[in-house]
Design brief:
The chain has 202 residues and is of the alpha+beta class. It has one domain. The chain is 21% helix and 26% strand. The protein is built from five helices and eight strands. Strands 1, 2, 3, 4, 5, 6, 7 and 8 form an eight-stranded mixed beta sheet that branches. The longest helix is centred in the first third of the chain and has 19 residues. 29% of the residues are buried. Pfam families: DUF4920. It comes from Hymenobacter properus. InterPro entries: DUF4920. This is DUF4920 domain-containing protein.
Length: 202
């Protein structure tokens, strides 16, 4: 009997400890605060993203093949997602609000794609800028001919400061001239998207 009481006390103490001191997730951006309303049907923790070398498009072991079929309507890359419930890019400022990050499903027209291997793409924002879309854990790429296609992306949108060197690297990947690359002289505040899935709409 004493053993059962001792076991119950220890179990209660362990549960109380984890409730009072939850382990912090390892995330590239701030998670949505506890108790915050979910956005567009999502309220999970921010997923772990790619490391800096992978974000800059560097090769490494275990990365997906760069042989990707041309973009076709209905094709998905990464996690299988549907267009149901996707918000237009114009609704992103409202969905994000004053927070640093929000998990959403968005639809927009791909305006640029990494021409080295399809490891990122961009979607135009409501204010005429570009939101760079990277892929969770560097686990998948998209076709290099995806530019001009309407797509749905599911994942995390967040605000970030992109270093000058990374901006120059992206410009090279996009096929910009040496002069255009050299014209990038400072870090830039941008909206970034870490996608776990991409679907071609048309």
């Amino acid at each position: 009997m004493k053993f059962l009481i001792s076991f119950a006390v220890v179990l209660v103490l362990i549960l109380a400890y984890f409730r009072l001191f939850p382990s912090a997730p390892i995330n590239p951006v701030l998670p949505v605060p506890q108790g915050q309303e979910e956005v567009n049907g999502h309220n999970a923790d921010v997923p772990k993203g790619a490391n800096e070398d992978e974000e800059a498009g560097e090769e490494g072991e275990g990365h997906p093949s760069t042989s990707i079929a041309p973009a076709t309507p209905g094709q998905t890359y990464g996690a299988a997602i549907s267009p149901d419930g996707a918000l237009p890019m114009t609704a992103l400022p409202t969905a994000l609000g004053t927070r640093d990050s929000a998990q959403v499903k968005l639809t927009g027209k791909a305006s640029a794609v990494c021409q080295a291997k399809g490891c990122w793409m961009t979607l135009p924002t409501a204010d005429g800028k570009e939101m760079r879309v990277r892929f969770k854990d560097y686990a998948f790429f998209v076709p290099k001919d995806l530019s001009g296609h309407d797509v749905v992306v599911s994942g995390w949108a967040y605000r970030s400061t992109v270093p000058k060197a990374e901006l120059q690297h992206y410009a090279k990947d996009a096929g910009k001239s040496d002069q255009e690359v050299a014209a990038i002289t400072q870090d830039e505040q941008q909206l970034t998207f870490l996608a776990d899935g991409v679907r071609v709409v048309n």
